[in-house]
Amino acid sequence: MIGIIGGTGLAGLLKNGEEKIVETKYGASKVLIDENKDVVLLGRHGLSHSTPPHKINYLANIYTLKKLGVERILSLNAVGSLKVEIEPSSFLIADDFIEFTKVRKSTYYDGEDGKVAHVNMLEPFCSDLRGILKEILDKRQYSYNEGTYICTEGPRFETIAEINMYKNWGHVVGMTAYPEVSLAKELEMCYCSLCNISNYCSGIKDSDLTVDEVLDTVKSMESKILNVVDDFINYKFEERTCGCKDAMKSAFI
């Protein structure tokens, strides 16, 4: 079972399938299930994009995918570029992250049930899935980079001072890949992030950042994104051999 998590401007991913509300001990999540291809589609902001990044129930969403039998997750993230050479309308495959969130619940092991765990994040994004994404993008001849994802709280955009700090540490800024990536690791699921570059961050180039700019770029990239998703869904996956499936073996105190 494959899980696809979509965000801004990706309603095209959520038109087909059987709609289902999955109840978990962390809350409920609405998904669409394509039974023929064993694919679960989850819109992190809701079908009408009514949930801002800091209020998404990440624990329920990732747990829902686990409950449905998902082993591999492709996360689609609209991001801003921190580097002039990483241009809007291109892609980035995240290989690491730094997070600056404030109010999000970010672990299944907070001690309430008597369990405390420290999951190893040496390789947060699955190396096998990153390799598959590179293979797909190369075959499609789509422009892409690899780099570090800076996750901010949102929903506001970042200040120029913040961007001047972030650009020394990472390549793109987004609001949703964390805590998805660490929660998936805690549930021993493979997780990768395909970032679509929707804009330059404030101060990177001489232009004012607007929501319309972001949405227009995402819309222009939609066919490419859907092509990558289709290739990913139809990829001939083999048995998992990466470290994700055993991530919690030595994590418990």
Write structural notes for this entry.
- Homohexamer. Dimer of a homotrimer.
- Belongs to the PNP/MTAP phosphorylase family. MTAP subfamily.
- This is Purine nucleoside phosphorylase.
- The chain has 253 residues and is α/β, with parallel strands linked by helices.
- It is built from 5 helices and 9 strands.
- The protein has one domain: Nucleoside phosphorylase domain (Rossmann fold, 3-Layer(aba) Sandwich).
- The model has no long low-confidence stretch (mean pLDDT 91).
- It has a 5-stranded mixed β-barrel.
Question: What does the secondary structure layout of this molecule look like, with pairings?
Answer:
Layout: E1 2-6, E2 18-24, E3 27-34, E4 39-43, H1 58-67, E5 72-81, E6 91-100, H2 127-140, E7 144-152, H3 160-166, E8 172-174, H4 177-186, E9 190-200, H5 211-233
Parallel strand pairs: 1-4, 1-5, 5-9, 6-7, 7-8
Antiparallel strand pairs: 2-3, 3-4, 5-8, 6-9
Summarize the structure.
The protein has 253 residues and is α/β, with parallel strands linked by helices. 25% of the residues lie in helices and 27% in strands.
Essential attributes:
253 residues, Rossmann fold, five-stranded mixed beta barrel, 5 helices, 25% helix
Instruction: Name the CATH superfamily assignment.
Output: Nucleoside phosphorylase domain
- Global shape: globular
Distance between the first and last residues' Cα = 31 Å
Under CATH, the topology is which? Rossmann fold
List the total number of helices. Answer: 5
Strand portion: 25-35%
Helix content: 25-40%
Briefly note the structural class of the backbone: alpha/beta
Instruction: Provide the domain count.
Output: 1
Uncertain segments: none
GO biological process, one term: purine ribonucleoside salvage
Binding site for phosphate: 8, 44-45, 176
Enzyme class: transferase
Keywords: Glycosyltransferase, Purine salvage, Transferase
